[in-house]
Inverse folding.
């Protein structure tokens, strides 16, 4: 069995600059993850989306938490 690790290290220190950069990186990473997920979901047919309980509108409004 293979495993894919999707965690990302963002520790850049505890000073204000390091925390600011870490937040910036985390924000960009969250945006990019949501973009990739929306792209993958958009490639599914309406039937496939229905199978997983989503609609095209859900895909358009998708945001990671």
């Amino acid at each position: 069995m293979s495993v894919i690790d999707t965690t990302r290290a963002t520790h850049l220190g505890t000073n204000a600059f390091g925390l600011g950069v870490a937040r910036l990186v985390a924000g960009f990473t969250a945006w990019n993850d949501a973009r990739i997920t929306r792209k993958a979901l958009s490639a599914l047919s309406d039937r496939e989306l229905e199978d997983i309980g989503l609609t095209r509108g859900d895909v358009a409004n998708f945001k990671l938490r």
About this structure: The radius of gyration is 16 Å.
